[in-house]
Automatic annotation (TrEMBL):
Record carries keyword Glycoprotein: no
Signal peptide range in chain numbering: 1-24
PKD domain ranges (all copies): 68-115
Record keyword Phosphoprotein present: no
Keywords annotated in UniProt: Signal
Protein name: PKD domain-containing protein
Amino acid sequence: MNLNINFRKSVSLMLVLALGTLNSCDDSVDTNPLTATDVDASFTITPVEGAMNTFLLSAQTKGVILSKWDTGDGASVGKMNQVISLPDAGTYTITHTAIGAGVATGTASKQIVVEKTDPAKGNLVQGGTFATAADQAKWTNAKLSPSGAAFWSFGANGATIYSPGGWAQEGLYQAIEVVKDREYTVDMTVSCPSGLKETFFEVYAGTSVPQPGVEYKDNLVMGIGTWDGCGLSKFSGRLSGVGCKKNAVTNTVSNVVKFSQSGTIYLLIRSGSNATGNEPITVTKVEFRGK
């Protein structure tokens, strides 16, 4: 019995001495040896053979555990080898943010010059920036909030949805002509300066005609939902990158849609909230393109 007590006392003394030695170390020493100090964000750009205006972005992988890519619409998490499509002619600045151990980061940028617009991937959305009166006139108010409690406001930065809570919501839509069995991609730039509570932002591409005062639920494509785990902190980027709502057809996070018949579909954006004090969500650069 005494031997056990003496053994415990010896172990305790050794622990005290060890902790004392650690506490006496120079405070200037980095106590997290796993933190990277120099993250290499360099990357290469390679045109994808046989695919117009499509490029493979390849990051070097040494010391990098996560990549974020920004093609001009905000950064979103991607792959080390990321394929991007730039359908419209123009000059694009591609920025890669490499994240290493301890959340250390490095950034690098390169430009891509796209000389010709891909005729097969032209944007079918009209007025997708909402910047002018002519742009705004291309959209119809869904009139989901008869009292006007939730409403959209237009400006140079896009369309902004305001909701005071209490499940107030509002939507915007426009008609688009599609071809049977052809695949299309939907995307847009979305931003909010702070995290949201009890809020949804959803995009639909349905064949049913929107009705005033009737919540639209035909063919959910993508979106943000705090119940789904996104929109909880501030965001700015393409909805395909920052959203987390599942596509109603594929049951995965996907922005691809196709239709069983040629004809008119309705691209509808609706958003609302049950919480008070949320910052508004702004959307711009809305796109609906052949894949």
